[in-house]
Design a protein that fits this description.
Layout lengths: L1 H26 L28 H18 L1 H11 L1 H24 L6
Helix pairs in contact: 3-4
């Protein structure tokens, strides 16, 4: 029963998204305005060089924050069942924190946490 439900769910998701894309293509008209390709800066016309590359470190810092933030969301379900599971839950969370700490050390060693 579970596999058939998943197949129906996947087919429904594909049909719904395909239908939405098809309707969007049929309803909207395509324009070839050169202004569409320009960068938008709060309504102020751009002057000079508009393609500025940022340091990749900012993106790495944000990704690492996001990863650790999402991983910490898993602590709530663990806290809910920790008393019921007992020592096994403690061992599992120690392993979880060890893996997180090793990821943090790896990121620190690679210099991803340096702001500048």
């Amino acid at each position: 029963m579970g596999a058939s439900s998943m197949i129906i769910l996947i087919l429904a998701a594909l049909a719904f998204s395909g239908f939405a894309i098809l309707v969007a293509k049929l309803v909207t008209k395509a324009t070839t305005n050169p202004q569409k390709g320009e960068p938008y800066e709060c309504g102020i016309p751009t002057t000079g060089k508009t393609w500025v590359q940022l340091n990749v470190g900012y993106y790495l810092f944000a990704l690492i924050f996001l990863i650790f933030d999402v991983e910490l969301v898993f602590l709530y379900p663990w806290a809910v069942v920790a008393k019921k599971v007992g020592w096994m839950a403690l061992i599992e969370i120690i392993i979880f924190f060890f893996i997180l700490f090793m990821g943090f050390l790896y990121a620190h060693k690679k210099g991803a946490l340096k702001w500048i």
